[in-house]
Design brief:
2 domains; 4-stranded antiparallel sheet; alpha+beta; 3-stranded antiparallel sheet
């Protein structure tokens, strides 16, 4: 009796089983790698979102601190409007109630106030008690930028 063909069939069967096991192991590791790559992509997306929010917050804080207004009273007929921020304010217009304005002295209109400098505004101390009794400063952070508003009670 010749066991040769049976031995070849058994060896072929064992090789096929071994190939199947190796294929299953490779499939398992490929799936694990795919899941790990998907998790890494999700984490990278989250990090990008966090970085973008941090950048937007830093930009907003920088804009908020670029021009910081402060008012100092200079006697009874004038105030000093200080730009305590590092950036210039462009197209500065100052609005005040008519009753608070010193006649013959125009309010600033279209001026540039550089960082860490000030301008003189001729208004009296006014206590009319109304909501409109405030100094309003209109300005831009860039010459053609959007107009911003800052108010201060008189």
């Amino acid at each position: 009796m010749d066991d040769g063909p049976a031995l070849i069939d058994a060896a072929t069967f064992l090789v096929a089983i071994l190939a199947l096991i190796i294929s299953l192991v490779a499939l398992y590791y490929a799936r694990r790698a795919t899941v790990a790559n998907e998790d890494a992509a999700i984490a990278a997306g989250r990090q990008a979102d966090v970085a973008e929010r941090a950048e937007q917050q830093a930009r907003a804080e920088a804009e908020a601190n670029a021009v910081r207004w402060r008012v100092d009273r200079l006697g009874t007929a004038a105030i000093k409007l200080n730009n305590d921020g590092p950036e210039s304010a462009y197209d500065v217009r100052v609005l005040a109630p008519t009753a608070a304005q010193v006649h013959g002295r125009p309010l600033p209109d279209g001026e540039t106030v550089r960082g860490y400098t000030s301008i003189r505004v001729w208004v009296t101390q006014f206590t009319g008690g109304g909501e409109e009794d405030q100094l309003t400063v209109l300005y831009r952070l860039e010459p053609q930028g959007p107009q911003r508003t800052w108010t201060h009670p008189l």
